[in-house]
User: What shape does this take?
Amino acid sequence: MMNRIYFKNHKKFLSFFKILVNKYYFYFSKDLNFKGFFFDIRGKVGVTGNAKKRHFLIKVGNFSFSKKSLKINIFKNLVRTKTGVLGLTAIISF
Assistant: This one.
């Protein structure tokens, strides 16, 4: 999805996604039975050229790498855009 969006609108899309996750987290966690959500995107988010890299983070609920009672599912991927590459990390704990 990010590679189809114009790079100046990346921040708007991520802000909308953050609002959506925060608003509907309770309903998703209740229906899908997960306890926490972590979303991290790093790189040139919404900038071009020789700009400083940005970091966008969404944390909702309970997630931890040190608790044995929580099971986690980690997803890591690269998102290619016209201005460079973004690193994506998503973690769901259940």
About this structure: Residues 7-93 form a domain with the Ribosomal protein S3 C-terminal domain fold (CATH 3.30.1140.32).
